[in-house]
Amino acid sequence: MGMGTVKPIQLSDAGFVKRLRSICQDTDRIVLTQHARQRMRQRRINMRQIVQCLRLGHIAEPAHPTIHGDWKATVEHQCAGDVVRVAVAIERQEDGELAVVVTVMD
Known about the structure:
The protein is of the alpha+beta class. The protein has three helices and five strands. It has one domain.
């Protein structure tokens, strides 16, 4: 019998949010892409708003697997009167999971 392929974990939207909130309790585990940093400046969205969105937001675009075997979704939350949307991927690392912010929208 040969070695089987590793099957990716299946995540529902609720499962994605639960894992995301757990990861985001440690802000060191939130990573911003260069693209996300550019959009933050353009759209005047700060890190506090992103963290609040990741910790308290709801799914705006469903969780789905990426070509890298990670999971990605868009989370939305109203922060300080503004609706903030964050496209975020949950990436597995050797030392745990990271929340990688791909882009931010308002």
